[in-house]
Amino acid sequence: MYLILRRFVVSTGLIVLTACSSGRQWQHPTKTIYEFAANNHECQKLALASAQEASLVPQPVLDEFMSRYERCLVAQGWSPVEVTNYVPPEVNVVTSNEKLTFSTDKFDFILSGPYTLLSQQHNEFLTHTGETYLYLIFQLDYPTQLIREAPPKINQSTFFDQYQNENIFARFFSQYKDNQVIFSCNAYLFANDNNRVVISISKAFENMPENYMDLTAPQFEQLRSTQNQWQTRLQQLAEQFQ
What we know:
The chain is an alpha+beta fold. It is 24% helix and 39% strand. It has three helices and 15 strands. A seven-stranded antiparallel sheet has the order 9-10-11-15-14-13-12, with helices on one face. The chain is globular.
């Protein structure tokens, strides 16, 4: 029997998801880890499509993704196993007109600026400022070493660029929905090998073509400028871990 611990994060536009936050493991009486990887990839695609269809906003529906993903793995013969020895530390948030402060027993993580907290589910937070949305997941005191690599490619998205250094791994992409280009960034910010913050940033652009080849020079520069602003923001946030 093979027991698989999901150690990676499934990124979905603004919404970034992890079965690991609940300590979920999967087992199968005969399948190997390689077969799990194939089943997992297929279930991610199905769950993301279902979560996007269920959403009335650019962000996929979290509960729908989790439900559809787990039903898909069960249909492939995998059985969930609850892990009781991992309880993620609590994250407390303090709001003000000037910043959002996320306090943990490891560090304070501060979003400076007029951010509004839209929703919270344990260690997952949806915020926005102006037309920009941010979704954060705090993965703290993780029982296994977190992999330092770029977030996975998003289904039905177009790759734009990526950036990384020792502690930041970011991927920029776009999706076309409801006659809008949803420009997004998914990133991992590492405090160390067992603590990181997963961030998804998203902003909608009106009157832009779906294909990058059809962009005018000013439109392309608008996306590139947005990428540079977000990249600088990620660098500033990662400096809080130093």
